Queue: 3 jobs
Job 1
Amino acid sequence: MPYQPGEIRPNNFTFEQVSVGQTFELVHTVTLADVKAFAILTGDYNPVHVDADFAKRTMFGKQVVHGMLTASFISTMIGMLIPGPGALWTSQTIEFLSPTFIGDVITIVAKVKAKTNATRMLSLEMNIYNQNKTKLIKGDSTVRMLEIADEKKKEPLAMNEFGKLTEPKVILITGGSRGIGAATATLLASKGHAVVVTYVKADDEAHALVKRITEIDGRIIAVKGDIAREADVAKLFKTAEDKFGLVQAVVHCAAPNPIPQPFDSLDWQTFQKHVDTQIQGAFHCAKHALPKMTASGSGAFVFLSSIFADGVPPSQQTVYVTVKAGLAAMARSLAVEYGPKGIRVNVVSPGMTQTEMISNIPDKVKMLAKMNTPLRRLADADDIAATIDFLLSPAARHITGENIRVCGGIVM
């Protein structure tokens, strides 16, 4: 509907809501007071505009409204209606076709001609008509829609008196029955989050973890299933949502033990097992989580990689290093694609960590790693869990696409 300037209700479009072909109208009756105010503002006292006696002796026979006064309502259109508050006017072409006179009722019509997502730019066709449908002005506007921070969407930093988050999340942890996954589940549950852990074979460990966390009034369930299988992941997410609600964060820890193996004795079946669990597992979890995260405008992922994925790799660990590097690359790609949708994706890369996963490594090698580490100790699972907790917290709300090494400084 057309609006009079005094009654304009500003539009508050998001860039995504604007579509090519949309049109808007603004109506204004030009008065003598408008002409006088424009002359005072600009210093343009051309008598054809402000002197009635002079104007009568011209070909028009009456006062002509400043052309730029008529055109100035293009600014009203851009700043209030399309795209509205927060718009930045970047260029304008104007062609004056017919004069405007005092008392004319002008209608400013804007039509969206083009939209460029990458730069948030709109191209608008502008036409101004009088009450007789005579076109007075035509032109093209280029406008950028600025991104305006929404304070309501900021994650709160506040903690309650017990040190738990005021807005707990539902967090899925793959491979969460033992090691780093179990430590992460324990820490997050202690802070009030609802935790869903997955496991394949470790029934006893999973049940023990659930018992420990439940005893401290934590919220947790353990779901058996292979994340390499899409059907298992679908069941996993349904179970999580039925129990706690929408999954708001995913921590991907699941990985087969990295048993050292010379490349000449390595078969593709072994390689495939790691790819299926880590890369395909991450893929399935992202596929199921991202649509609802996108709809809600927020979400977070943390993938567990390794310092060896981008440093000097250990000997006979081709499978482990290759897959961890791929996982980190996937995280960066998702961070770029889904960052504009409010979703963060980060990587935690531990160094040698005291878990069952390094049980096959000789004590001599562990001791050497410890002595070469500036902090002179190996990490334990709680060190990694604390970093994951940070990346999922509101304190990390401006961190995405990062790879945080938790290795005591052995890689700098």
Job 2
Amino acid sequence: MNLVIGCGYVGRRVAQHWRVQGKRVAALTRGRSAELSAAGIEPVNGDVLDPASLKQLPVGETVLYAVGMDRSTGRSFRDVYVEGLRNVLDALPPPGRLIYVSSTSVYGQANGEEVDEESPTEPREANGQVVLEAERLLRSRVPEAIILRFAGIYGPGRIMRRAAIEKGEPLVGDAEKWLNLIHVDDGVQAVLAAEDRGKKGETYLISDDEPVRRRDFYTELAALLKAPPALFEALPPGSPPPPHEGGNRRAVNQRMRTALGVTLKHPSYRVGLSKTV
């Protein structure tokens, strides 16, 4: 049996691929049992923030941990990413393989530098610091876990700032900073490749082949949506910068392509947006 903890945008798609492969799949859920059962996924009722609910976690040949932030819980980012992970690790029977979905927010580079798996992880933003803390907790408890540091995930039903672009609203921030992206279908492909070919204890950066400046990405998006041209405006003087303004780096995906053997279906934002929009 394979187990998904965090059966959301990425996790649900991975579970569906496993089912197509004929594998038995279970998923932790806080209230979607009927929906999962209808998809052939065995629901395991529980919540990463409730240790008592995790006592029945099954043994997983492969476990995908892809928990994201759900603001409806009223809990902090650290509660979800660090304490939730700790609760699961306390309860989880040792899996054959544990694949953990992390984030490129662990990098703090701010001058457009290239980053890869060996680059320093010194995040400036609070959320990135929490994500790095979670990675370190995982490494201390399950050193053989495979960590996938995802760039910004987009795809059907999930395109950053789409509503603002359609309305012609200006985007606040530096239009020349870099975005690092991965289409959800390629992200799923990377998870499956990590299951098949990933080296235990390794970290892989999951991003497409072409980092893009915000101006170019949103200009392309506006054109595809037949919306007004993308507009940008600087932060008002004295205003604290939003969290996304702290980073500015370009992700290098060579290890993903060579060691995992991933061939991207959407190697750039141009391909991904044209197919998605």
Job 3
Amino acid sequence: MELRQLEHFVAVAEERNFTRAANRVGIVQSGLSASIRFLERELGAALFVRSTRRVALTAAGQALLPSARRSLAAARAGREAVEAVEGLRRGRLAIGISQILVPSFDLPGILAEFRRDYPGVELRLRQAVPIEHFASLRDGQLDLAFMPLLDRPDDDLEATVVARDSMALACGPDHPLARRRVVHLRDLVSERFVNLPTSWTSRQVVDQAFEAAGLTHENALEVNDIDTCLELVGRGLGIAVVPEAARSHAGMVVFRPLAKRLAWDYFMVRRADGAIGPAARELLRRILPV
């Protein structure tokens, strides 16, 4: 079993398409298919279920995928360690982010400065919810991830607070609450909410605050991105309680502070075993200077 075969396998597993996977790894599709067939013969098991419409992992493929990712991550870390001797001229930096970026922690600015200093390092960004980032960190797909959290992850991941933000009411400019100086949770009980999914930390902050106050609210609409949420709010389809940081997405939406501050922390998360490459270590040094 060769690393190149594992790279081909992971590409097909993630792309769910042989053509896209072949483009990703830079070979012709017939060569990729031959590589996968050879790997399957070597392992004595089919790794994919192929049809004219889709490619899916078999049980054997699902079992192999985490190990394959870890092997590729280890090989990449080894290459980058050698390259680090001559400086960060090459390598890869894979970062996980959330939909909300906190203004007090200028992650885009930090990454832009890193790109200017090390143009040879390939920068990859992936936007997802925390549970997906945790899995990607463990598999070696991500070096670092930045996200809001209510609870710290398990001990195999290390989480460091890098910023803090508060929640605020978002409503349309013509909504009666837009004229309030501050808003109490009890003022929102009869309102129609445009909510984000329960997998979002900001949604969990809101739900826990209502539960702690012995109140309920109507989940009228639910969407999975902040821009759509605020667009619906701005059109008068409901109100939302969202991070203050969402002001950058706001458009015509009016923000009003809550009488009781609801705070959430923004974390940088990494593997606790320190298994990151030179590029990630350099970025870490810039974020958490010794």
